[in-house]
Design a protein that fits this description.
Distance between the termini of chain A: 41 Å
Number of helices of chain B: 0
Strand content of chain B: over 45%
Largest interface: A-B, 25 and 26 residues
Number of strands of chain B: 11
Oligomer: heterodimer
Order of helices and strands of chain A: EEEEEEEEEEE
Distance between the termini of chain B: 37 Å
Order of helices and strands of chain B: EEEEEEEEEEE
Largest sheet of chain A: 6 strands, mixed
Structural class of chain B: mainly beta
Largest sheet of chain B: 7 strands, mixed
Shape of chain A: globular
Mean pLDDT of chain A: 94
Shape of chain B: globular
Chain lengths: 112, 114
């Protein structure tokens, strides 16, 4: 059974820091991996999607990497801003399925 | 990406009543929609996969007679929580399968059962 873990569960940093968010998964037979952002009481916004054949994806200040063989992904946030404060969720899509398996998320607080 | 709406955004009901939650795709015809449930500080858990015109596929441990799903059109799926109890209080989120292997999520519905 696929399990997705995100550690730590919460992180509080001053504005301007470069951040690394970690995600690990137990079964490397994934189709793709996605990083989402969730604001309090809201739905999910897709940030980056990495196919299983890819190593990384970039969008603005965000960069996500994938090491499928070791079951790890990282989301790198450059020059963090208070507006980046949210919960960040990692989800893997398993091969042969449309099902997404989510981690519990990491609550990020960026202080001005 | 696709725009997904949910209605209502919040609902409070008495124990034993039934609650219907709508999920609409505003600009995308979705043959497949998904319903998730999220308890506080927990992961989103897939409850069921809804395919237009056919019966939903439920995940293990989800009671199909309690959580009724109807995907009657390419733009609308509904989740009805029948005889709701306090333990059903949760955040319910729908999503639809879009192009480019991604899913587009609705804003969620907060259900509180008293």
């Amino acid at each position: 059974k696929q399990e997705v873990t995100q550690i730590p569960a919460a992180l509080s940093v001053p504005e301007g820091e470069n951040l690394v968010l970690n995600c690990s998964f137990t079964d490397s037979a994934i189709y793709n991996l996605q990083w989402f952002r969730q604001d309090p009481g809201k739905g999910l916004t897709s940030l980056l999607l990495i196919q299983s054949s890819q190593r990384e994806q970039t969008s603005g200040r965000l960069n996500a990497s994938l090491d499928k063989s070791s079951g790890r992904s990282t989301l790198y946030i450059a020059a963090s801003q208070p507006g980046d404060s949210a919960t960040y969720l990692c989800a893997v899509r398993e091969g042969g399925s449309e099902k997404l398996v989510f981690g519990k998320g990491m609550k990020l607080t960026v202080n001005p | 990406g696709a725009v997904v709406s949910q209605h209502p955004s919040r609902v409070i009901c008495k124990s034993g009543t039934s609650v219907k939650i709508e999920c609409r795709s505003l600009d995308f015809q979705a043959t497949t929609m998904f319903w998730y449930r999220q308890f506080p500080k927990q992961s989103l858990m897939l409850m069921a996969t809804s395919n237009e015109g056919s019966k939903a596929t439920y995940e293990q441990g989800v009671e199909k007679d309690k959580f009724l799903i109807n995907h009657a059109s390419l733009t609308l799926s509904t989740l009805t929580v029948t005889s709701a109890h306090p333990e059903d209080s949760s955040f319910y989120i729908c999503s639809l399968a879009g192009d480019a292997d991604t899913q587009y999520f609705g804003p969620g519905t907060r259900l509180t059962v008293l």
